[in-house]
Amino acid sequence: MKVSLYTDGSARGNPDGPGGYGAILRYIDANGTVHEREYSQGFKKTTNNRMELMAAIVGLEALIRPCEVDLYSDSKYLTDAFNQNWINGWLKANWRIGKKNEVKNIDLWKRLLKAMEMHKVHFIWVKGHAGHPENEKCDELATTAADSGDLIDDVAYEW
Question: What is the pTM of this model?
Fold first, then answer.
């Protein structure tokens, strides 16, 4: 089965303030019917990159059987990590960038790799939201999550 996953993270610029993430999963079932599922969550005190990772993770974790996934993201950080083989380098270097710098968000990167295990995932960078109304919809989800009172503490947040 082929699915499209649209992700977006949204931050407020205040490290102590709320942020949110949203993902939209679109797939076609065996009868040719198009389905859409939406996810959103708010964080207290987090970073945009963490939220983009979370959006990708929750979308992939929702897939029950192996799929070919086109994952659209406006995060160059997320798509470059895979399209330029950063992950392979990080794994070989014991999750380090260079000799001293530990990769940030290791817990989420490992969870994302786990979520990707049974799928063939293509990471596609969407420059801004021009021409991608689905990604714009994800941005609205992320903003709604950030502005809601339904927030979780991101205990893994680090400066």
Answer: 0.87
